[in-house]
Amino acid sequence: MDYQNLTNLRKLDLSHHDLTEVPSSIAGLKQLRVLDLSYNNLTCIPGFLLELPHLKTLAVGHNSITSLPFGLAKSSIKDLIADYNRIDFILPSTLIGLRKLILSYNRLNVGIVRTVLPNLHHLDIRHNPSIQFAGPDCLPNIHRYYHDTDVRGTLVPDGMQWFK
Fold first, then answer.
1. For 11-146, which CATH superfamily applies?
2. Structure pTM?
């Protein structure tokens, strides 16, 4: 489908469409704020999505994505839902601007993250081989933090809620 004529579209749901790539005509949707691409067969997040000036929420869960794009930190995206993929590595500095990050059920094996993520309020990293945050200073504004219960040595910021 061609989306070029829908220039004022703010929300687009392309979930469950058996997509193997994101239609390039979405690049013209400059007013788009929410894009749902979950439950498809995508292997990557194309760079043109990061250039959409008003895109705040990107849902790409239940695909076959293996990595997050480096340009994510410079994009307008604040909420990223990328659970149930094949992501095995993230560059923590790409997550700086995010407010909500859901990466559960991936293959993350990054060890200890020391990068400060000042905007992050909601984080879900359950069911990954190895990812921990070095201490409460890394997540100064976290409100919801979901992680595996058998994470030895993980520091939980004072006063935050503990979710299992």
1. Ribonuclease Inhibitor (3.80.10.10)
2. 0.88
